[in-house]
């Protein structure tokens, strides 16, 4: 029977594997189970370390990117072209391969029963999605099979998916906003 060892120092993956082979050969299944748990713990620790390193790199990169965008934002703001606006939003979602930008002006809060009762949209356009879909709903949004991410899950939109099909595919806010932007573009082209 394999002698169970007391761990005083952390073992490497190779050391654990060697002990596991010896335990299997000896038929010591409780030792195999214990070593498998150690291997799992080691793998999780390595994954956590890699994740922490990546997060640290992303934090540094975020600061660099922010500095670059701050330069552009300052230049745009100082140009005077955007006087009267309260700010602008720019997004570039690498997974969606799509950018969006909007200039915003804060509006006075509504009072009375109307306040907070309406649905909001990320895209500032007064036209209703349903009304626009009646006009351009048959427009093809995806000409070829396309992988999209909705609620952190990948979905394949088949070739020929129309704006109406895409809009009805999911009620996820980010997805609906993406489809709404495509609907607005189609409406603007149709005008």
Main attributes?
191 residues; alpha+beta; two-stranded antiparallel sheet; two-stranded antiparallel ribbon; 6 strands
Structure description:
The protein is an alpha+beta fold and 191 residues long. Among the domains are: 13-66; 115-190, no CATH class. Helices cover 51% and strands 15% of the residues. The chain has helices spanning 13-26, 29-78, 129-136, 163-169, 173-190; strands spanning 87-93, 98-104, 140-142, 146-150, 153-157, 161-162. The strands form three sheets. The protein has a two-stranded antiparallel ribbon. Strands 3-6 form a two-stranded antiparallel sheet. A two-stranded antiparallel sheet has the order 4-5. Strand 4 (146-150) and strand 5 form a beta hairpin. Helix 3 (129-136) packs across helix 5 (173-190). The model is unreliable at 112-117 (pLDDT under 50).
Give the secondary structure arrangement, pairings included.
Elements (H helix, E strand, L loop, with lengths): L12 H14 L2 H50 L8 E7 L4 E7 L24 H8 L3 E3 L3 E5 L2 E5 L3 E2 H7 L3 H18 L1
Antiparallel strand pairs: 1-2, 3-6, 4-5
Helix pairs in contact: 1-2, 3-5
Helical content band: 40-55%
Instruction: Tell me about the largest β-sheet.
Output: 2 strands, antiparallel
Mean pLDDT: 81
Structural class, by secondary structure, is: alpha+beta
Low-confidence stretches: 112-117
What's the arrangement of strands in the largest beta sheet? 1-2
What letter string, H or E per element, gives the SSE order? HHEEHEEEEHH
Q: Oligomeric status of the shown chains?
A: single chain
User: How many strand segments?
Assistant: 6
From the alpha-carbon coordinates, what is the Rg to the nearest angstrom?
27 Å
How many helical elements? 5
Outline type: elongated
**Portion in beta strands:** 15-25%
